Amino acid sequence: MVDIKSSDITDKQIYLNRRSFIAAAAAAAGGALIADSRVHAQDAAGHGRRLMTVHSPFSTTESVNTWEHSTTYNNFYEFGTGKDDPARNAPAWKPPQPWTIAIDGECAKKGTLALEDVLKGQVLEDRIYRHRCVEGWSMVIPWVGFPLANLIQRCEPTAKAKFIEFTSILDTKQMRGQRSDVLEWPYVEALRMDEAMHPMTTLAVGIYGEVLPNQNGAPVRLVVPWKYGFKGIKSIVKVRFVEKQPMSSWQINYPKAYGFYANVNPRVNHPNWSQAMEVRLPSLFKRMRTQVFNGYGDQVASLYQGMDLTRNY
Predict the structure, then answer these.
(1) Is the pLDDT of residue 10 over 60?
(2) pTM reported for the whole predicted model
(3) Which of 51, 113, 174, 219 is least enclosed, having the fewest CB within 10 Å?
């Protein structure tokens, strides 16, 4: 194992340019060099798919994991259940172009949005969040994205919209994991509306200032830093506003272990292991006590006031 190093993330006080993102996303999907000169105007990036970002005030000051750590040790069951399966199997995946997101349910603005239109006018932020998985390991990852609330407001949900449901892409030809019965496909996840509207809840399109790699959930995924990692649905193709609490994929497949709320809580154990401690990767010897809400309690504890979080896990 190698030591954790700080990532070299340069704050750029400029807004996302639509053409820059499109060029970068095309390069990520096809492996080509970026043609847009405004991307090249930034500091050289080791992977050649740079995004324009500003720094997020929600970022932690902890040292981040390296690109290699964060892109080679992943949960993305669509590409296999092993931690190295996504890095091995996902790079060959060719996402549909253009990428679209269907908007449905209790909202005024139903329809289909191209990702480039979702991103138009958005300010992308470097959001350095602690990332905690239910298996007992954690990393610090510098996501690039924008508040989910921005998209929600654009959709104009009605008063009946109490929850928001997300669905991942279904592509059994290219995603070998979807040819197994480990989960019911496509993958579905959901949040309560106030959780979704919290400013820390992020739609991520990149990491380390660069376009999101396939194995990390390209081209757009959910990041909710006070929840366990399985709440981070990847490759989102549908957003639906609903009145009643929906069932997520892990609730359906293993309800004793994976509840709807999934807040990081050291007092709620997985049926097979304790959640009281975590290992900060890449060192197997860097053990630390698990923090309630993954250390973000000051920001989010009020969302759950009066709830029994050992029952609502």
Answers:
(1) no
(2) 0.86
(3) 174
